[in-house]
Design a protein that fits this description.
CATH topology of the largest domain: Aminoglycoside 3'-phosphotransferase, Chain: A, domain 2
Oligomer: single chain
Structural class: alpha+beta
Largest sheet: 6 strands, antiparallel
Shape: globular
CATH class of the largest domain: Alpha Beta
Number of strands: 11
Number of domains: 2
Helix content: 40-55%
Length: 358
């Protein structure tokens, strides 16, 4: 198998690992500020934002307008970047859910370029969407239900949209869960490794054969609490950000991905997932087949999170901000995967069926 260059002493296959293992751009802020001023006519105060693959900043102008400045990884193909731009423009047009607005450059194009260290990067700006991340508020059953309904409206807005870049090679794409097997040796806890392997095996045996029968569309692909915004006054979900993991996939994947972050205790494992799924179902009904796949899909998303968590512990420097952010946020995924394993597929499905029918 072909390999990219080694990262932290390990070789990774040229598949979905490439974009994850590639170093984000490290362009001096002054260079980015100059490029934005020349190409977009905007200047102001820059605040760095942590990102997995790109180099991002929050820009506040003297007039108080706010934007996100994104310098795209050189590893991202141009059609994928264009896909992200086109999807946001489509969602702005249909207006089902608030999303960032793509900002045109002075020449009328929706992206610019910045050259650094022999590499060319796409430079783009989107509006900074008002709201606080879901991580900043207590999540209860009502919040979870609201999240489900709002995500369903987002998926309704994306349904029917298509683009040549809609099939990016992403390790986070659950359709590629089998590629995680090559990273499992990074999980040094044997109990955790067995739990992750079991989730991947169950996905291969139970989900893969059914993928062709599931409704497929472009999905957000990463509705985790940091990418979900809430209104600080009402506590209602007010929008979605970070569309960098969009992909054409079964729509139920969007439900499973978001559900994997609604982690409750073993006393009531589905305390948040059940109302979330019910909220989604009320706006956009899930089929019997989709409901039946959720147990294994949530577990394989948790398996993805855990595997990449361990991989990053080896692959990234100890002072890497994304590594630390991920470690702080995702270590609880291990405990929740164990809770779901103990709950079991039959009980999980039964509780969801009660939630959507009630």
């Amino acid at each position: 198998m072909s390999c990219i260059g080694e990262t932290a002493g390990m070789s990774l296959p040229v598949t979905a690992h490439a974009a994850v293992s590639a170093e984000p751009p490290r362009i001096p802020a002054a260079d980015i500020e100059l490029a934005v001023e020349r190409q977009f006519g905007l200047c102001g105060r820059y605040l760095p934002l942590v990102s997995e693959r790109d180099q991002n900043y929050r820009l506040t102008t003297s007039s108080g307008d706010e934007y996100v400045v994104k310098v795209t990884s050189a590893a991202e193909p141009r059609p994928v970047s264009d896909f992200h731009i086109a999807a946001l423009q489509h969602l702005e047009k249909v207006g089902t859910v608030p999303v960032p607005r793509v900002v045109p450059a002075l020449d009328g194009r929706y992206s610019g370029r910045i050259e650094y260290a022999g590499k060319s990067h796409m430079l783009r700006l989107v509006s900074y969407l008002a709201g606080e991340p879901l991580t900043s508020v207590p999540v209860n059953a009502d919040t979870a239900r609201d999240l489900g309904g709002t995500l369903a409206r987002l998926d309704l807005g994306l349904d029917g949209f298509s683009h040549e870049g809609e099939n990016p090679v992403l390790l986070w794409d659950l359709q590629r869960a089998g590629e995680l097997r090559g990273l499992l040796d990074r999980i040094d806890n044997p109990i955790t490794r067995r739990s992750v392997l079991r989730a991947i095996d169950d996905y291969d045996q139970r989900v893969l054969p059914e993928l062709g029968s599931l409704h497929t569309q472009v999905i957000h692909g990463d509705a985790n609490p940091e990418n979900v915004l809430v209104d600080p006054g009402s506590g209602r979900v007010s929008g979605f950000i970070d569309f960098g993991d969009m992909v054409r996939a079964p729509r139920v994947f969007d439900v499973a991905i978001a559900a994997s972050y609604l982690r409750a205790s073993e006393k009531n494992a589905l305390e948040l997932i059940a109302p979330f799924v019910a909220g989604y179902h009320a706006v956009r009904p899930l089929s019997v087949a989709e409901l039946a796949q959720l147990f294994d899909l949530v577990r394989v998303r948790l398996a993805t999170t855990i595997t990449l968590l361990y991989w990053r512990l080896d692959a990234r420097d100890h002072n890497d901000p994304y590594r630390q952010k991920t470690l702080d946020r995702e270590s609880e995924a291990i405990a929740f995967l164990t809770i779901l394993d103990e709950l079991g597929r039959a009980t999980f499905l039964r509780e969801l069926q009660c939630a959507v029918s009630g």
